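Hi there, hope your week has been kind to you so far. Do you reckon you could talk me through the fold, stretch by stretch? Thanks so much in advance, here it is.
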Amino acid sequence: MTHNVFFWLKDNQNIELFESEAIKLTKINSVNSGTLGKSALTPEREVTDKSFTYHLSLNFPDIESHNHYQEDLTHKEFVKKCNQMWEKVIVFDTEEIT
């Protein structure tokens, strides 16, 4: 399964702290792979939304691993240290169908 998290950060936040803490999430044992990124410089189209600040994508072998991630101390520390930085967060969790 894939856990996609989109963050809209408030102005004047400690970007270095946010990035370093978010990257730690990709290293949690239950995570197969993960990336932290920003909106790509693709052409503007009616169907694209480039309003977010960061996108975290984490891949798990199964839902149980995702649930373990949610309870991991590193994840809890990230939320504690960074939750005042964002004005909005949207999560899209998906399972492969192929």
